[in-house]
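Journal club side-thread
Mid-discussion, someone asked how the predicted structure for our own chain would compare to the paper's figures. Pasting it here so we can look after the session.
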Amino acid sequence: MTNEPFSAAASLDELLTRTQQALSAMRSRPAEHTDGDAPELLRADGTAADGLVRAVVVQGGRLESVTVDPRLSAAGIETVCGHIVAAVNAALADLEAQVSATARADVDALAARLAAAPRLRLTH
């Protein structure tokens, strides 16, 4: 004769172990690529001064490039610097949105895996 509370506890323990394994696998897994190449970092750009200033940032918060159109040179250094800051901040905001969307996709994938796991039935 089996003791159902112990059986249910073992099933719950197994479910928790599977969940931890799934989370661990998702955390350590790089972004999936079908071509087998290393995943590219997320990249975002932002502009200011009607497109005369462009900044590109990559995942991890690194600034990759800043481009200032020469037509802006007469505006003065303080004005140009202000536009650079605005372009970088716009790029960072876009990157943050991309990272959030990726995190939501990971959570959705985890939820799908958990939904596919066997249901635990506890009886008294």
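Post-session note: Residues 4-116 form a domain with the Ybab; Chain: A; fold (CATH 3.30.1310.10).
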